[in-house]
Specification:
Length: about 110
């Protein structure tokens, strides 16, 4: 784990990583208990359905998204948020290009 980034993360110094077609993510600050990640979606891009053992709380920073959690879909816009429980199947589709800020507990070791 790169503890140099704790407790501060300077967005301009952090790299983007491809996370799928039209989707890229940037790991912000984290420790072993929690992680914050910015995820940018191009118009129409999809975060395919998946699940993981982490609790995920997400904030719609910009754009319009259809978020599906355990088969229920809601349209969310800037300022909205959602919670995906551990192991819940969930996905995101960008109706308009935008950015989500995801927080995971515990941190996603697979992202570093």
């Amino acid at each position: 784990m790169n503890s140099e980034r704790l407790p501060y993360a300077r967005d301009s110094e952090l790299p983007w990583h491809e996370a799928g077609p039209g989707v890229r993510r940037k790991v912000l600050c984290y420790d072993d208990r929690m992680m914050m990640v910015r995820v940018a979606f191009e118009d129409g891009a999809k975060g395919v359905e998946h699940s993981h053992p982490h609790l995920q709380c997400s904030y719609v920073e910009s754009g319009v998204f259809e978020i599906t959690i355990e088969g229920r879909t809601e349209r969310l816009t800037a300022g909205d948020s959602f919670l995906a429980p551990p192991n819940a199947a969930h996905s995101a589709t960008a109706i308009e290009a935008g950015t989500l800020v995801d927080v995971f507990a515990p941190m996603r070791e697979d992202f570093v």
